[in-house]
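Holo prediction. Input below; ligand is 4'-phosphopantetheine.
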Amino acid sequence: MKVIYPGSFDPLTYGHIDIIERCSEQFELITVAVLINNAKVGLFTTQERLDLIRETTKHLKNVRVDSFRGLLIDYAKKIDTNIIIKGLRAVSDFEYEMQMALANKKLYPKLETFFMVSNMKYSFLSSSIVKEVSILGGDVSGFVPKVVEDSLKVKIKGGL
Ligand code: PNS
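Structure of the complex:
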């Protein structure tokens, strides 16, 4: 079974890595797909996000990392993969994720969304929290791998 794990990954956190590693044990091929969102300026460029994910997941042989623009369903069709993986951290994630899953299903009935319960250790964690803590000078070593932490430091030192 082939799956897509889509997201913004701005930046990748231990919560994302946990989902990717668990997917890697369950599925044949995982495509981590970074959304190219022209409407929203992120902290990291798409290329930087791709590089950080590639570096962090290089030990997983069935993980590939790619970017996409436009609708997720169109990307899913393009790479011939009709299972989407989403992580659920808390009930607060559910409403929005349910809405997206149903909209995607309506647009592309062959598409299935599989929800994975996030590891409890990381249920509080989000890329936004990581950025905020990092920008305000906090220690994010428990939130992201070293390579991401170092990249955050470089961004912040350079005035973002
Ligand atoms: O990490 P995020 O920001 O929660 O990821 C959201 C993402 C990228 C999975 C979602 O915004 C998405 O699929 N965007 C692509 C555009 C699209 O297909 N929108 C319609 C969804 S109903």
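The two ends are 40 Å apart (CA to CA). That is the main takeaway for now.
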